[in-house]
Design goal:
alpha+beta, Elongation Factor Tu (Ef-tu), domain 3, nine-stranded antiparallel sheet, seven-stranded parallel sheet, 30 helices, 26 strands, globular
Length: about 850
């Protein structure tokens, strides 16, 4: 289904299964005292608007609440001009995240702990407002015996109205009443409602609310293929989009099930297809000989009634399959298993000129191992590489990083001890020293804040808790115990802190002159250490992303960069490297050689699968002119994504002084010059240096006594290059599967994600970790959303309407990393007019 139609479908689904009562109202401070907020229909004397809402949905918790909206300014023009950014919100009914000029705080009343009483409103109160039917107005008093839930409070806020700013950011009293924090802690709330008392109390029916909603899955959402496969058979309609969750389990469940349900049904069909035998025959080559053939064409006769047509449409997209050959239909054990590839068209293939291929027949080219001199019964099944399961497991594991009991992934970077027996795991808290336990408490607090961000319901709960303290801090707090309790603020990171002014100015110069001031303001004030930047198509977001990434690196240290696809990561790495060189050149243009300090180019590495790097390195030693063609290639294997530029192999060739790549520049990173000096003096690779520089040929080197140790040492250098990078770029999968890349990721001081409108959330989580490290995400607002395989697929023979969907979380799985963070309340820097002359330097 096209993306636009999918949005329309989501809106229709929400309307079908939701009964929402929206009621204009006036919110008083105390018992009919000063007005805090009022719906526009009442024309109340306040800058804040309000509504009462009774929300009932089949797939969400029913809730009774009221909301207060605070103005940000028309079009948020002022906020955008000063560098605060633009706030976005998920719009119910439109099923999309869009800019919204008001920031809303919801006060949700506790279920079963709420009493509502309606009385006719006295004329003295009604006359203060614009009311059409004054006889049908009531005073609603809502009392609670448990704390209300505050949603949306604490998100970064700035209004063009200074008075409103003071109410929210400085907690100043609103008019002659109380401040906002005091108001939210009340146990009784009073409203003026434009309905008759008896009628409205009856309509509320708080004692008749449907039961609470929970996803029909267990608390355990870790990777277990058997359990997840069983859970995927719980049929039903698709669940609605959720940009916020009431608890961590709800958030983790949506991510895990959206990932697993996209592949579990296909996995089961794959197994069924693999258990099915078909008749088939090999096509004799034109010369009539097959004894020495390394590949042959194979025609498999599937029956016209083949029952797995729906699954096969998806399974055959990779074209790579395996065929198992049996001597007879009764055999249980295959004679051979061969690699094969689906041929999409038999036209222009001489071998098939006399073979008419029917629609139900499958045409393959197979990699032969023995002479096919007998008729075979054949099983054909799509290749299921371990890496595919590993990728789905990686995403499920990434979602489980945000369970409330998860350990910090980068505990070593944070100064926490590892388990001596299992160094990849953190030491049990019970075995830690008091100092380390205090540190762990602070890390857990930061993880709690990270989870609050991803739950998307604001930060009131986190802000209300006291910050964890060590013994000294606790003693100091006791001395101040009589001080009034206040909510703690969100942490803020300054991405320009510690950056040399000349270098910072040169980086910011990547933007248009009119953007300099607001860009600096945005970089200097990043709540939660989180930045979001979007652009219109054609505005070269990657160039801006490169500039922002270089700022982060200069301020924070090593930065890990990623993007949804290998091509995206290639482009991101190349642009960062290009901009770094240009910026260094501009800064050093008037400096003489040897005069310190010169601005150095940042050491940018594009890390690929280490197996592919090793194969490419060996091939380039044999033929230095292969370039990108040195990547592993096999007709019966998936194509390699390896490219030479900025790869580990590229940098090793630079260090070895290969004439096929560029030489080190005086402005290259000091670590590169240091590495090259070590390589020049290393006797174990003298022969390798001679080979790379052309002094000897491959035959001489490969036959030498030092060949083995030289190649082993070269492999160690390839690993070391990744660890020593200042900016490392890799896909989310490689960040977990490659040891040296993962080590860099776990010690990175910040993260940058390009093309984040197309990135799946679990890919972001896998990359980013769970301790709220500084992050900047970039994206094009018109980019396609993440791909979902089972977006609209129904269970075969589904008779229920509107249907039983194979992936009940498909719409939720389509939510991108960038728009999910936007909906959480983090301001976005909109970057529409990049200086294209600089972008093309």
């Amino acid at each position: 289904m096209p993306q636009q139609n999918m949005k329309d479908s989501a809106s229709a689904h929400e309307a079908l299964h939701t009964a929402t009562s929206l009621q204009d109202c006036v919110v008083f401070m105390g018992n009919c005292g000063q007005v805090l907020a009022a719906s526009k229909s009442f024309a109340g004397p306040t800058k804040l608007t309000s509504r009462l809402i009774l929300f009932i949905s089949r797939d969400k918790d029913p809730v009774f609440l009221f909301e207060i909206s605070f103005p940000l300014g028309e079009g948020q023009t002022d906020n955008e001009n000063v560098g605060f950014g633009v706030k976005h919100r998920y719009t119910f009914g439109k099923s999309k995240v869009e800019a919204n000029d008001r920031q809303t705080v919801e006060v949700r009343f506790p279920r079963g702990k709420t009493q509502a009483k309606c009385l006719a409103a006295p004329a003295s109160i009604v006359d203060q407002f614009r009311v059409k039917d004054k006889d049908k107005v009531c005073i609603l008093t809502v009392s609670v015996t448990a704390p209300v839930t505050i949603v949306g409070y604490g998100c970064p806020f700035r209004s063009a109205d200074r008075e409103v700013n003071s109410w929210v950011n400085d907690n100043k009293p609103i008019g002659k009443g109380v401040n906002l924090q005091t108001f939210l802690k009340q146990q009784s709330f009073t409203f003026l409602v434009g309905k008759g008392a008896v009628d409205f109390e009856r309509r509320l029916g708080l004692d008749r609310l449907p039961p609470p909603f929970h996803y029909p899955y267990g608390d355990d959402q870790t990777w277990n293929e058997a359990r997840l496969a069983k859970e995927s058979t719980l049929r039903g309609d698709q669940f609605p989009l959720r940009y916020s969750h009431p608890d961590d389990l709800s958030h983790v469940t949506a991510i895990v099930q959206g990932t697993s349900q996209d592949i579990m049904w296909l996995n089961e069909r794959r197994k069924e297809i693999a258990a099915t035998k078909f008749s088939g025959y090999f096509v004799t080559p034109p010369d009539g000989t097959i004894d020495k053939a390394t590949s042959l064409y194979l025609v498999i006769a599937r029956t016209p009634e083949f029952k797995h047509k729906q699954a096969w449409v998806h399974l055959q997209k990779g074209h790579l399959v395996k065929v198992a050959l049996f001597n007879s239909p009764s055999d249980e054990t295959e004679e051979e298993t061969w690699n094969a590839k689906i041929v999409s068209s038999s036209e222009d293939i001489p071998e098939l000129s006399d073979h008419a291929i029917e629609k139900h027949e499958l045409f393959l080219i197979v990699q032969t191992k023995v002479k096919p001199d007998a008729p075979y019964e054949i099983k054909c099944y799509c290749s299921r590489e371990a890496a595919q399961d590993k990728d789905h497991k990686r995403r499920v594991d990434a979602a489980n990083l945000f369970r409330s009991d998860a350990d910090p992934v980068n505990f070593d970077l944070l100064g926490l001890p590892s388990d001596p027996q299992f160094p990849q795991h953190m030491l049990d808290e019970k075995l830690m020293t008091i100092e380390k336990r205090d540190l762990l408490a602070k890390v857990h607090d930061r993880m709690d804040l990270h989870r609050a961000l991803l739950r998307g319901q604001g930060f009131y709960q986190w802000m209300s808790k006291p910050a964890p303290r060590d013994i000294v801090e606790a003693m100091e707090a006791m001395m101040l115990r009589d001080a009034p309790a206040t909510l703690r603020p969100l942490p803020v990171v300054n991405f320009l802190e510690g950056v040399d002014k000349e270098y910072a100015d040169a980086i910011v110069d990547e933007a248009l002159p009119s953007d300099h001031k607001r860009l600096c303001a945005y970089l200097e004030y990043r709540p939660l250490g989180l930045g979001i930047a979007t652009s219109c198509p054609g505005s070269s977001t990657t160039t801006f992303a490169a500039a922002a990434t270089l700022v982060m690196q200069a301020s924070l240290g090593p930065i890990f960069c990623s993007a949804p696809t290998n091509v995206d990561v290639d482009n991101f790495a190349s642009r960062i490297d290009n901009r770094s060189a240009m910026i260094a050149a501009r800064c050093n243009d008037r400096k003489h050689v040897g005069r310190a300090p010169r601005v150095h180019r940042r050491f940018v590495v594009r890390a690929y699968d280490m197996t592919h790097e090793s194969v490419a390195f060996r091939r380039l030693l044999q033929d230095p002119n292969q370039g990108d063609n040195a990547a592993p290639n096999s007709f019966f294997d998936p194509p390699s994504n390896w490219k030479l530029h900025l790869s580990r192999v590229y940098w090793l060739l630079v260090l070895l002084r290969s004439p096929t790549v560029r030489s080190l520049h005086q402005d290259d990173a000091p670590v590169l010059h240091h590495l090259q000096q070590g390589i020049d003096k290393n006797p174990d690779i003298a022969g390798l240096r001679a080979l790379v520089t052309g002094a000897i040929d491959w035959e001489t080197f490969s036959g030498s006594k030092e060949y083995d140790i030289a190649m082993t040492t070269a492999g160690e250098y390839l690993d070391d290059i990744a660890r020593r990078a200042e900016i490392l770029c890799a896909t989310p999968a490689d960040s977990e599967n490659d040891k040296s890349v993962k080590m860099f990721k776990l010690h990175a001081k910040g993260f940058a994600i390009d093309e984040a409108y197309n990135m799946k959330r679990p890919d972001l989580y896998c990359t980013w970790g769970n301790t709220l490290s500084p992050l900047f995400v970039f994206g094009d607002r018109k980019q396609l959303r993440p791909a979902v395989i089972m977006l609209t697929e129904l269970w075969p023979n589904s008779k229920k309407r509107p249907g039983e969907f194979i992936n009940r979380f498909a719409r939720d799985a389509q939510i991108s990393a960038l728009e999910y963070l936007q909906a959480s309340g983090i301001p976005t820097y909109r970057y529409d007019d990049l200086d294209t002359t600089k972008a093309s330097d």
